[in-house]
Amino acid sequence: MTTTDTLATDSVEPLIQVRNLGNRFGSNVVHEDLNLDMYPGEILGVVGGSGSGKSVLLRSIVGLQRPNAGSVLVFGEDLLQLSSEERARVERRFGVLFQRGALFSSLNLQENVALPLIEHAGLPRADAEYLGRLKLALAGLPPEAALKYPAELSGGMIKRAALARALALDPEILFLDEPTAGLDPIGAAAFDQLILTLRDALGISVFLVTHDLDTLYSICDRVAVLAQRRVLVAASLDEVAATDDPWVQEYFHGPRGRAAQTTAAVKDA
Amino acid sequence: MDIAYEGEASLKSQLGLQPGRVQIDGQRLIVSGAWILQYYQHLRAEVAAAQGTTATEADGERSIDLDGIAALDTAGAAVLIDLLGHGWLEQSSTLAQGLAPERRRLLQTVAATMTDSLTQSQKQASLLLMFLAGVGQRTQAVLRQQWQLFGFTGLTLATMVATLTRPRSWRITSMVAHIHQTGPNAVPIVALLTFLVGAVTGFLGATILKDFGATIYTVNLVAFAFLREFGVLLAAILLAGRTASAFTAQIGSMKANEEIDAIRTLGLDPIEVLVLPRVMAMCVTLPALTFIGMISGIAGGALVCLVSLDISLFQFVSIIKRDISLTHFVVGIVKAPVFAAVIAVIGCLEGFKVSGSAQSVGEHTTSSVVQSIFMVILLDAIAALFFMQMGW
Fold first, then answer.
1. Does A159 reach chain B within 8 Å, measured CB to CB?
2. A73 with A20: CB under 8 angstroms?
3. How far apart are CA B242 and CA B245, in angstroms?
4. ipTM of the modeled complex
5. H or E segment and range at residue B176
6. How does DSSP assign B134-163, residue by residue?
7. Residues of chain A contacting B74 with CB distance shorter than 8 Å
8. C-alpha distance from B115 to closest chain A C-alpha (Å)
9. Which residues does B362 contact at the CB level (< 8 Å), separation at least 6?
10. Where does chain A have alpha helices with state H?
11. Pair A116, A168: CB distance under 8 Å
12. A63-122 pLDDT per residue, tens
């Protein structure tokens, strides 16, 4: 949290610049004139009601969804303007954790993580699987889990394994789509700490879509609120919580918001 | 702290970094360059070359210079820890001045995860042992599969009987929907295939029987073959490929999505809701398709007779009327509902065996097609023996 002030200044070039983004599905307009910046090294939390287009925003940034309007600049390059080879090169600098893990069900965990290493880094299988086991251990999985298949795992282990795969190529930006959804509070808190540790140790930036207020309070440097088809406010948590908007007020000052705030305050003290 | 964040990540993206190097200068170990994933193999070779020299072994007296490291990521950190040893980080707090705090944290994080269990290699059993184990497993699997099939057939029959007395729980809509899916859409392919096989049978008969001057019996051959065997067998094999696989995929994806569990917790019986309508639908569809198959097979034979043997259509039909009794048709068509039930039951059972992964859906779909075709041909052979012995 200490990094907020130094990072949010204009002197630092944003890693991701979303400008006037527009997305619609048929007559359903999801985004309109959406602007968002993400700075190097920060953990940016993206919140919003169900159906407010958080996942669509994530998909637009990583290039899975072609926006109807606007531009997305990642590392200063517009993904939509690049040739497919250049895009693949940029995409290798992303790590994405999907909401339900999206692990390959026909591969065991170490093969799941080793796959990008073999394909992109050109490592021999034995080396790739060794690094795969290392990443799995880094994500907090026990060594014997490496040979298991996704179908044999609990929800929390799937999230950890998916994180290990997202980290496989040592990405510079980590996109996490609701990483703590469906985890028990202890597991969720441990996952939060894990992300924080990895960010500090590896120096990655994290784009975090979440509903989890505890996650917001415990690890996010900045929070962006998605409402009314755009980013309503993107600032530090205190500033966002002070925003004069009924939805934001209810979100942060409703019963759950207050509880999370109290917990975070106790933890800080 | 922002400088630290810019460090690893953005540096790595710059091209033209020198790959990591290890230099030994007396008791000094100089580590420099980029220790990142793309140089992983180079780094491993570098470390392997440096290991075993005095500087890497003499723990107490060596000094380590990490100033020159341009970039470091988890893969590089793992190699670096291999070089320096696990114990080094703890005793090194004062030794390595050039180590930035975030790099130290990275090294510590990676070192903490690098236990011996990471390098464990799976023991390869001997080939003979693996072969024997495989034979055993397969035999067991086949036996278990047959056992399950008997059990599931029994369960389906029991549920069917129990449902008979409760017309309210007959799922007419579902059954009609399945009839629609499995029946009308399969008519063109069944008709075409049997027509072609009928024509081929006609040609075979014409060729062989010519030597005996008995080409007229081609009519009997075609009619006999299609009424008794080919009509039902071809229709059943086609449905086994078309419908058993569809049933397995449908029920398998429902299983993977926990829909079957949802049906159970809602107090419904999955057999009654999912299996019975499919079995009943097949029992309606396959006899109908069998009939179509018989007709178009005989039509194919008739065409060949007309074209290459000069047997007119009128003559063809009158020969059939004279020589072929209704028994042959009955012998053929009674097999249809049995085959239908077997195909549907196997398709559904394999669907229930799916265990969540996409791989598993594929495996069980394959298995259901193979099994149902096998069972259809096996039952047909048994039935043929039986009917021959009975003189029907």
1. no
2. no
3. 6
4. 0.71
5. helix B172-182
6. HHHHHHHHHHHHHHHHHHHHHHHHHHHHHH
7. 131, 134-135, 138, 167, 170, 202
8. 9
9. none
10. 4-7, 54-62, 84-91, 109-120, 125-138, 155-166, 185-202, 213-219, 237-241, 246-253, 255-268
11. yes
12. 888 888 888 888 888 877 888 888 878 888 888 888 888 888 878 888 888 888 888 777
As beta bridge partners, residue B181 has: none
Q: Greatest CA span in chain B, whole angstroms?
A: 109
B12: nearest Cα among A6, A37, A203: A203
Quick one: how far is CA A221 from the chain centroid? 13
Rounded Cα–Cα distance for residues B83 and B22 (Å) = 9
- Give helix B335-353 / helix B276-308 axis angle, nearest 10°: 130
Q: Which residue has the tokens 């000069």?
A: B310
Question: Which of A227-231, B212-216, B370-374 has the highest mean predicted lDDT (pLDDT)?
Answer: B370-374
Q: What type of residue is A110?
A: Q
* Per-residue tokens: B50: 């440096």
Band of residue B123 on the pLDDT scale cut at 50, 70, 90: low
A3, A130, A138: residue with CB nearest B109: A138
pLDDT digits (tens, 9 = 90+) for B70-95: 778 888 888 888 887 776 666 655 45
pLDDT at B3: 37
For chain A, positions 115-144, list CB contacts with chain B under 8 A.
117, 121, 123-124, 127, 130-131, 133-135, 137-138, 143-144
Reported as a single tens digit per residue, the pLDDT across A190-231 is 888 888 888 887 788 999 898 888 888 888 888 888 888 888
Contact of B241 with B369, CB cutoff 8 Å: yes
B305: its two tokens = 């007779």
| Cα atoms in the 13 Å half-sphere on the side-chain side of A187 | 15
Q: Which of B8, B38, B108 sits opposite A203 (nearest CB)?
A: B8
- B-chain CB neighbours of A133 within 8 Å are 118
Class of residue B164 by CB neighbours under 10 A (exposed 0-12, middle 13-18, buried 19+): exposed
Q: Mutation target for A interface from B104, B113, B258: give the one with most A CBs within 10 A.
A: B113
Is the minimum CB–CB distance between A49 and chain B shorter than 8 Å?
no
Nearest to B288 by CA among B345, B339, B347: B339
**Rounded-to-integer distance, Cα A21 and Cα B341, Å:** 56
Backbone angles phi, psi at B138, to 5 degrees: -65, -45
Torsion of CA B20, B24, B28, B34, to 10 degrees: 0
